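Risk register update: the risk of archive-format incompatibility is retired. Evidence:
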Amino acid sequence: MSNLLKKLYLWVIHWAKTPYAVFALFILAVAESSFFIIPPDTLLIAMGLGKPKKSFFYALVCSVGSVLGGIVGYTIGYFLWAKVQGFFIPHIFSQSVFDAVQAKYALHSFWIVFTAAFTPIPYKVFTITAGVCSISLLGFFVASSVGRSMRFFLVATLFFFFGETAEKYIEKYFNWLTIVFAVLLVLGFLLVRKIL
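Archived output:
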């Protein structure tokens, strides 16, 4: 499985060196918010390293795509859940994770969506569950827009102001940064399982 993920990751990264990088970033951001497993941050970082002065534009593309993808996820949950449930559970996330998220929406829907949008927690679980729970679409849109924009523009800010320095740092500590990113991703999944 790890070999498959590595190949998938490398396939995502390769788009940064093509003329279709911006379009690929947008599509990846849409897909990751509803069903895809590789976060758009990977391509955003690669593109930011290549052209630091365009980082804010890339962050905007990523944010818009991700929020639209979140609405796709919401739509899947709201209209199609009965038909697609077998695909998502257990292939994308587990029933226990889904049930835990669903139980919390009644109390803190805005903050749950915002937290999922901003952190390494798997956002797609929350977009789909938001639709299943029929939370306010306006509240969902605002929480997603704020959370996703904060996340991607934070990355863009680092590359815009510290592009060359950031590139040297990443090249020097790439293996460690990969481990940290993987740990954060795992912690995100564990947080969903244990806390929610």
